[in-house]
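Q&A log
Question type: sequence-to-structure
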Amino acid sequence: MRNGRTLAAVGLGTAAAVAVGQYLGRVAGSTRAERRTALPGDDLVRHPTVATDHAVDIAAAPEDVWPWLTQMGWHRAGWYTPRWVDRLLFPANLPSADRLVGELLRDLTPGDEIPDGPPGTAHFVIVRADAPHLLVLRSTTHLPTAWRDRLGAGIDWTWTFVLTPRPDGSRLHLRVRGRTSPWWLTAAYVAALVPADYVMALGMLRGIERRVVSTRRTPTAEPVTTP
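Response status: OK
Response body:
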């Protein structure tokens, strides 16, 4: 009897942890109104396998946040995810930048690519860029070529960043929509990547918020004058 109760408790605990992971991975940080709002880019992936929404408040105007989005990417400024995530999952990438890097800042133009891996591998294509309020990215390259060619696996993925001005700064909202096939990839996506989005997507937004605020609070060095 005791063993049966223990197994039941473990089962309930596991089910609760899975449910919490799925919930946080889909909606953490966002409001119900944000999740219900139609955004540019939603039409690119119809009937998504998964749609997630995450958001943060930033004590800075959209004009001050936007440059951090323009320098994102593999071997650029990174994705601003927690450093332990970078070390664990992306050891070949450079550490995410903690400052704006002049040579990495650029005008984002539809059709341009943002690398998410070594040359010839995963990348996003800029679909729309309306500075400093909207950035829509799309990718169909985030699977190994062998999976796509031999197994018929595929993922169509969009990231939509929306920066909305507020009296005390701005609101940064990220919506991710992905459609996957076949069934085993869909199962893996839902089981693993959705909970991971709580760390990855929300961690990225919080990383941007921390960097924007910390650099704005850093006093500018006073020029040295000679008596």
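Response note: The chain has one domain: 7-217.
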